[in-house]
Write a structure and sequence with these properties.
Radius of gyration of chain A: 21 Å
Distance between the termini of chain B: 57 Å
Strand order of the largest sheet of chain A: 9-8-7-10-6-1-4-5-11
Structural class of chain B: alpha/beta
CATH class of chain A: Alpha Beta
Strand content of chain A: 25-35%
CATH topology of the largest domain in chain B: Rossmann fold
Oligomer: heterodimer
Low-confidence stretches of chain A: none
Mean pLDDT of chain A: 95
Low-confidence stretches of chain B: none
Shape of chain A: globular
CATH topology of chain A: Rossmann fold
Number of helices of chain B: 9
């Protein structure tokens, strides 16, 4: 079975303007819309397209999070994933532990490709794909904007500061995806009904026997420093004057 | 006593300014030594540039033909091996460091602090989360190696004038052949580098087309500025991806940022928060960009931008 494993994280929807809790322990998540991390949605879409080209047989969506994360996995199934696994925990799971969980699942599921979002838009860490590739001792391609699979190899284009970089990787490999890789499909109502019958297994975090002595402590969370609201000018001449006063032109 | 190792970013000939900013960050930890590690095929030119950064104790050079391109899978095992004895291992939060450092951390069996924006102690740091809408203060256990990326927009370049010793090192680890470099393409423009430019002129979706974007280039050239763009302008194909500014593009801190036809989505604002002065030009007076702008001008950008270019010339 040629299998692709995809990570699906439940995060605060990207349209929500997050607010820091008054007690500075985190951000307000109660009553806030939750969604699939947008980069993970792109990873899933890419996996589905690879399968639709006949280059894979199964797409497995893996989530790590609370029981409610089943909602995002159901959405993944409705988009077209064949089955899903939720590693259930109410605790916050740091990227190294995420990588260790995926590493264990890889032994069981034997994927030829693991597709993950390049970062989750809550913690903005951008670490799990590279950590997984290290623990698995396999190639990594970060921030992919094009993926081509042929003959046990992948040719990927990735977005780097200098422009675009092309790498050739032996499979299996881990890839993290960027925004311009594809545009994820919309879920149709009949697919949501069908998704209810697809297998969604739940595992307990305890099954993975993780002990992370290097886990970080959250000291506090603060709102960012605010910029002062500036002045409005009415035309170009005033703008040029204002820039000159600041010594900027 | 801290002992800090910084992984140098370079293109084989020139040291990237991001390395000097990592040294600034490291020097705030204080009370220890700072070494820079250059991994290259031929590291002599880059090593001598690194040796000139004030505050650097030693420059370690690991030369290997396999290091000619910065492949994370090839560099990470070397960095992990050479990290022995160090309390901190830093890299820049650029696409180079973001690719490499988590792989190093995993090989060392520790977590990573991404995007350090402030140093609160030898093991405590501030970093942005939720696209910069919150700031997390995080503490690494005292006995763990601190692997981190440094948000380069948060730190000034370290002073020059150093004279560090340069020492060749051989990590002596087996390197994988499973990842191969094919090519790199960049829309080289001859303009200042977006990441380090003092002035940036950026355009958004309102420019309407690649052709419409020409007035941005003209103004930028008049001002000696770099060109940037919003995600919307990149997605629409007006400009190349390497011009994108924001949460998923470049995080920049110029003296002057001109946002032209950019509405100011949260994800864009996170990329320009550290700009000294933000100027917004937009036809929609209600656009969120005006909340953060130091100087705002409402109007038709296709009239304003050429006029601005003209008036700046006189």
């Amino acid at each position: 079975m040629r299998r692709i494993m995809v990570g699906v994280k439940r995060v605060v929807d990207y349209n929500v303007r997050v607010r820091v809790r008054p007690d500075n322990t985190g951000v307000v998540t109660e009553g806030v819309k939750m969604s699939i991390n947008p980069f993970d949605e792109i990873a899933l879409e890419e996996a589905l397209r690879i399968k639709e080209k006949g280059l894979a047989d199964e797409v497995l969506a893996v989530g790590i999070g609370p029981a409610d994360a089943q909602q995002q996995l159901r959405t993944a199934l409705a988009m077209g994933a064949d089955r899903a696994v939720l590693v259930q925990t109410d605790a916050s799971v740091p990227p190294l532990s995420v990588a260790r969980i995926f590493r264990q699942l890889i032994d069981k599921e034997q994927p030829f490709l693991v597709l993950l979002g390049k970062q989750a838009i809550d913690d903005d860490n951008g670490q799990a794909p590279q950590m997984l590739a290290a623990l698995w001792d396999r190639p990594q391609a970060v921030s992919c904007s094009k993926i081509e699979i042929a003959d046990g190899k992948a040719t990927v284009t990735r977005e780097v500061d200098a422009g675009l970089e092309v790498l050739e990787l032996d499979l299996p490999a881990v890839m993290s995806v960027d925004l311009r890789l594809n545009e994820p499909r919309y879920v149709k109502l009949p697919d949501i009904m069908k998704a209810k019958k697809k297998p969604l297994d739940t595992l307990a975090l305890g099954d993975f026997g993780l002990t992370d002595a290097s886990a970080f402590k959250t000291v506090r969370v603060d709102p960012p420093p605010q910029r002062q609201k500036g002045i409005m000018v009415k035309d170009v001449a005033e703008l040029v004057d204002a820039l000159k006063k600041k010594g900027l032109v | 006593m801290s002992k800090i190792l910084i992984v140098a970013e370079h293109d084989g000939a020139r040291l990237n300014p991001s390395t000097s900013k990592c040294v600034s960050c490291a020097s705030q930890i204080g009370g220890g030594s700072i070494d820079v590690l250059v991994l290259a095929a031929d590291g002599s030119a880059v090593a001598s540039q690194a040796a000139e950064i004030a505050g650097v104790g030693k420059v370690l050079v690991a030369e290997n033909a396999a290091n000619v391109e910065p492949l994370a899978a090839v560099l990470a095992p070397q960095v992990a091996k050479l990290a022995a004895g160090y309390t901190h291992v830093f890299g820049p939060s650029t696409t180079f460091g973001k690719d490499l450092m988590p792989r190093v951390a995993a090989l060392l069996g520790v977590g990573q602090v991404s995007d350090i924006m402030a140093v609160e102690g030898s093991h405590a740091f501030k970093r942005p989360i939720y696209a910069g809408n919150a700031v997390l203060t995080v503490e690494v256990p005292a006995d763990a190696v601190v692997v981190a990326t440094v948000r380069v927009a948060s730190f000034a370049a370290a002073a020059q004038g150093g004279n560090a010793a340069i020492e060749k090192v051989d990590p002596g680890v087996a390197l994988p052949a499973h990842t191969r470099f094919v090519s790199r393409s960049s829309a080289a423009t001859g303009r200042p580098d977006l990441q380090s430019a003092a002035r940036v002129v950026a355009g958004g979706r309102a420019l309407g087309s690649a052709d419409g974007f020409k007035i941005i280039y003209a103004l930028a050239d008049k001002m000696g500025a770099a060109v940037g763009a919003s995600r919307a302008a990149v997605d629409a194909g007006y400009v190349a991806n390497d011009l994108q500014v924001g949460q998923t593009g470049k995080i920049i801190a110029p003296e002057l940022y001109l946002a032209i036809g950019i509405s100011g989505a949260i994800q864009h604002m996170t990329g320009i928060k550290d700009a000294r002065t933000i100027v917004a030009i937009n036809k929609d007076g209600e656009a969120p960009i005006f909340e953060a702008a130091d100087i705002g001008l409402v109007g038709d950008l296709f009239a304003i931008v050429p006029e601005l270019e003209k008036q700046l010339g006189s």
